Amino acid sequence: MHPLLRRPLLHIFLPLSALLFLLTTSYHLRTDRLSGFISHPAQTDQGQPVCPDPRNDHQLIWPPGPNRDSQRYLLIATFSIAPTPHLRPVPVLPTPCLDPWFAHGLPCHLPLPPLTADLIWTWVNGTDPLQLEASLAASLASGVTPAKGKTSASSKQYRENGELRYSLRSAVANLGTWINKAYLLVGDYNLTSCAQPTMRDENGTTHILPVEPSRLAQLPQWLKPADGATWADGKLRLEAVAHWQTGVRTQVFNSFAIEGGLAQLPGLEEYFIYLNDDYFLLRPLPRSAFFTPSYGLVFRFQPDLLVRGSSTPHSSSTGEWAALEYSNYLLNARFGPRDRPYVVHVAKAMSRPLVEELELAWETEFRETREHVFRSNRDAYLGFLFPHYTIERHREALLWSFVVARLGGRGDEWGEEQMEAAWRRLGGGEAEEYYADLDVWRLPRSTLEPARVRTVVGEDLRGTVYKFSSHDGYPYTAPMYVSKSFPSFPLPNSPPALTKACTFEFELCLGTEGESSTHASAVFKRIAFEIPRCGDCLITALVGQSGELGLSAFLPPPDAQEELSPEVVPVLPLSSSWEEPSFALSSVLPPHTSLRAFVISLLSRYTYTLASTPVKFASLRTPLSTRQVLAQIDKENDLEMVCLNDDITTREAEVRTLAGEWMERRWARKAGWEEGGWW
User: Fold this and answer.
1) Which residues 6+ apart lie within 8 Å of 514 measured at CB?
2) Cβ-contact 250, 134 below 8 angstroms
3) Any idea what the Cα angle at residue 88 is, between residues 323 and 238, rounded to 5°?
4) pTM recorded for the entire structure
5) How far is the C-alpha of 143 from the C-alpha of 105, rounded, in Å?
6) Helices then strands, each counted (H, E), the chain
7) Residues near 330 by Cβ (< 8 Å), separated by ≥ 6?
8) Does Transferase count among this protein's keywords (predicted)?
9) Distance in angstroms (rounded) separating the CA atoms of residues 108 and 334
10) Residue 181: how many CA atoms within 13 Å on its side-chain side?
11) Tens digit of pLDDT for each residue in 51-76?
C-alpha cells in the first residue's frame, strides 16, 4: 500500500478500535447485571455460598458464581408477622348526598373525593430453576409426581412467555392519572442451601455469626436493578411483593392460594384492579369502566354460563371449575341456593375492605386454601366469590332494610300490624282479597338511561355499557335463567312493554305460619335464604313501588340523626352460614345509631354495576391459529380488553415468537422500570 494511503486509514481504524474497546468494557461492567445495587454472596473455602443478610442485601444473584442458571432475586426477611384482614369502612359519597341518592336517585353535586386505584399483577416464572426444584420437592412430598398430573410448575399455568412486560405496558398506556401504584405479587423460596457467615478473631478462633432468616423472591429479569423492591415510570411506582409478605406461609403452586393474599399487600389502596400477566388493555379506559362513587364497582359476567354449587366438585382437581363449584357451594350455604354466572377473564375491580370482609366471613375456608400446595377441589376462589358476595350482600341488605329495619323495628316484631304495612307498601288494595298472591310487573326505571349515566359519572364510558345497577334491585331473578341475560327495566319514554316479573306469594313469604306472631328477623331469614324466590320477587315489587329512581320503598323513615358515626362500620352478621347468626336489630345496630343512616350506608357499601365491554378471550395453540387469532384482534377496532391464554399444543417456541412480536408492535414504548440499552 502506498504510504500516503496508510495515514487516512489509521485515522479511521484507531478511533473505531477505541470505540469497540469501550463498548466491550462497558458490556462487562454494565449495571444491568453487575450493578452496585446487586449483591454477589460470598462463598466459603469449599465454594458454598454464605447466607446473605436481608438487612444489608436487597437484590442478589443466586446461585453465585459463573452459573448459567443464576438469576436476580429479591431478598426478603421472614421475621415479619403475617398480616390479617380487618373490618374497614368503604369510601362512599359525601354524607349530604347519600340519602337523596339512595332514596330518590338524585345525583350528588358536591365535590367528590378523588378516588384512585392500585394495579396488582400476580406472576410466577415457571421455568425458574428454584421454582422447578421447589415444585418437584412439593410434588414428591405430597405423593403426587408431576408426571401423574399437571402439578408441575412448568405446566402452562406458570409457563413464562414474556407477557408480563407487555401487560404492564398496556396498562401504563391506557389507564389515566387515577391509577396510584402498581404491584407485582411474586413467588418466593426458602433460602436454606447456604452456609452461616463466620468471623475469625485475633486468636484464630472461628465464630459462627447469627443471620436473619430470609427468602428469595422472583423478579422479572428485565426489571432494572434497584436498591430495594420499587421502581418508577414517571409518577407511577411499581413494587414487587412476595407471597410470604401477604401472609401465605406455605410454599404454594396454587393460584387460588396466592389470590387469597391480595388484600394484604402493604399500603394497598381502597380500590384495586387485579390482572393476570396474560391480560391486556387495548384502548384507553376511564375509571368508570371499573368503579365510580355513585354506581360502585363494575362487574363483568357471562350470563349464559352458569356455575352450580357442590361441596365435592366432580371437576378435575387441578382445573378452574372445581374451585368455581366449591365457591358457589360456599355462597349457597351463606345466601341460599342458586346457580351464578361465570366471571369474565379480564381485569377485575375489587374493594380492599370488601375482600377483607369476605375473608373474615369464610376465615377457615381461606386459611385452608392458602395451605393447599397445589390446586384442590376445595379451594376458595376469590375472583369468583368477590363479585357474587358483593351482589348477595346488597340483596341481603335490601331485604333486611324492609323487613327488619322498616317493619320489625327495635322490638323485632312481626304480626298483623307488620303484615298489613307490607301489604299496603306492595300495592295491595282494600278491596282485594286480603293477603292474596300479587302479580309483580317490571316497571319503567331511569337509573341507567345513557345520558343520565354520563352526567352522574362525569365522563364518557367509551365502550363500556352499564347493563344493570344495584339501584334497580337484584339481577338474578327468574327471567335471567330463561333469557340468559340480566333483567332489564324499560325506560320511561320507551313504548309500553311491561313484562310480568313474578307472582309474590304473600302468605307463604310474609305470613306468620299459623302463629299469631313471630320475629321479623325470622321472616327475613325465610324470604332471604330459605325460600329465595320470595326475596327475589319482593325486591322487584319494591323497586317498582319506589318509582323511576331510588329505593325509597325499602328504607325506614327518616329520623333526627342523619349521619353515621365514623367509628361505625355498617355490616350485617359475618358468618359462613345464615342459620346461626341473629339478624335482629338489637344484634346488628350499635347503640345511639340512626337506623336510616345505617341502612343507607349499608347499601352504599355494596353498591355495584353489571356492565359489558368489548372483550375477547383468545387461546394460543399452534402457529397457524395464533396468527389467525392475533390478526382478528387487530381487525376488531372496538376491542378494549383481551386475555391471551396459553393453550400451546405444538411448536411452542414459534408460538411464543409470534405472540412476542405482536405484543412488541402493539406496545413498543418501554416503561421506566425496564432495562435500557441495546444489550
Assistant:
1) none
2) no
3) 70
4) 0.90
5) 59
6) 20, 26
7) 309, 362, 365, 380, 385, 576
8) yes
9) 34
10) 17
11) 777 777 688 888 776 666 678 899 88
